[in-house]
C-alpha cells in the first residue's frame, strides 16, 4: 500500500479519478467489483518493479487459461499449485467443456438430463456425470455422453435408429431385447 | 520506447491553408501519455489508448484531462508489446478481415518467447484488453497442453505451495490425467 500511495501523491488529483473509475468498471469475471478493485490495489503494492508477479495473478486469470486446454489437462494441472487447483474446479472452466447448447438440448430431449443440470452443485459435476452416465435422448433412440479426456460429444445409436440403405442382407426384423437401454418397439 | 511527437511541418501538406493544417495535425496527432510502473513514458495515439478499457473509462470520467495516466501495474517491456498488438488490432477495426486478423494474431504470438507471453497476461488483464487476453490465453494453453505439472510450474514461474502429501493425493485422484504426457 505504501508504494502505491507514494505514487499518487507525486502525480495529480486525476489519479484519484482513475482509481475511482476502476471500481466502477463493468466486469463479468469477478462478481464483486469492489473485490477486484481491492485486489488490484493489493497487487500494486507487493510487486517487483510495479509489475504483477505471476504468483499473484487472480484465480480467474488461470481459469481463463485453463478453459483453452482440455479436460484432461485441467485435471492434471490442478496439482500445479493451490490457485491452479481452485481455478481447475471453477464453473468458468467446465462450462467451456460442456456443449454450448446442452441446456436446451437436454430440456427438449431428456428430462433426466435437465434434472441433472439443475441439481448438480458444479459444472464439473455435470461434466463427469455425463461422461460416466450416458443420457437416453431422442425418444429412446440414442444415448448421449461426453468423452472424458476431450469433452467430445458421443452418441450411441440404437439398432432401431440404424438405416441400412444398400443391400438386402441386413434388412428385416429386429429382435426385442428386454434389457436394452433403448426404448422397445 | 516513447515516440517523440512528429514535427507538424513535415507531415502536413504545404499547399493547404495554415489554419487547416493546424486543426488537422492536432486531430490526427492526438496522443495520450502513459507512465509505466518503472517510470517509462509512452506517448500513444488516442485510438490505441482507447483499446485499453481501463484507460478508456478514465477518460470517460475526465474527458478533458491532459495529464499523464499512471499505470502502476504495468512494466514497460510487456507494455510495448501490448501496444504493438493493439496497433495491429485497430487496422482490423477499420477494415474487418477475420482471416487476416487470425493470421496476424498467430504471427504476433508465434515470435514471442514463453516469458513474453507470461509477462503480457497480467498487463492485458489489468488494462482489460479482451482480444489480447483471448489470444494470449490460447497461445499459452497451446504451449502447455499435454505437458507435465513440473513443466507448467517452470513455464509460468509458479511456486508450488502444496505439501508433498497434498500433491500425491491430487495425482492419485486424477491418475488417468497423468498418463502419456509429453516429455519435458
TrEMBL record, chain A:
Listed InterPro entries: F-box-like_dom_sf, F-box_dom
PROSITE patterns reported in the protein's UniProt record: FBOX
CDD domains assigned: F-box_AtSKIP3-like (cd22162)
Pfam families: F-box
F-box domain sequence ranges: 51-97
Matches recorded under PANTHER family: F-BOX DOMAIN-CONTAINING PROTEIN, F-BOX PROTEIN PP2-B1
Annotated protein name in UniProt: F-box domain-containing protein
Origin species: Salix koriyanagi
From TrEMBL, chain B:
Originating organism: Salix koriyanagi
Entry annotated with the keyword Transcription regulation: no
Protein family (similarity comment): Belongs to the SKP1 family.
Domain SKP1 component dimerisation: 130-177
InterPro entries: SKP1 (IPR016897), SKP1-like (IPR001232), SKP1-like_dim_sf (IPR036296), SKP1/BTB/POZ_sf (IPR011333), Skp1_comp_dimer (IPR016072), Skp1_comp_POZ (IPR016073)
Biological process annotations from GO: jasmonic acid mediated signaling pathway; protein ubiquitination; ubiquitin-dependent protein catabolic process
UniProt-recorded name of the protein: SKP1-like protein
Protein's job: Involved in ubiquitination and subsequent proteasomal degradation of target proteins. Together with CUL1, RBX1 and a F-box protein, it forms a SCF E3 ubiquitin ligase complex. The functional specificity of this complex depends on the type of F-box protein. In the SCF complex, it serves as an adapter that links the F-box protein to CUL1.
Pfam families named among the record's database cross-references: Skp1, Skp1_POZ
Pathway: Protein modification; protein ubiquitination
Domain SKP1 component POZ, first and last residues per copy: 30-88
Record note on quaternary structure: Part of a SCF (SKP1-cullin-F-box) protein ligase complex.
Keyword set, alphabetical order: Ubl conjugation pathway
Ranges for region Disordered: 1-22
PANTHER family: SKP1
Domain of life: Eukaryota
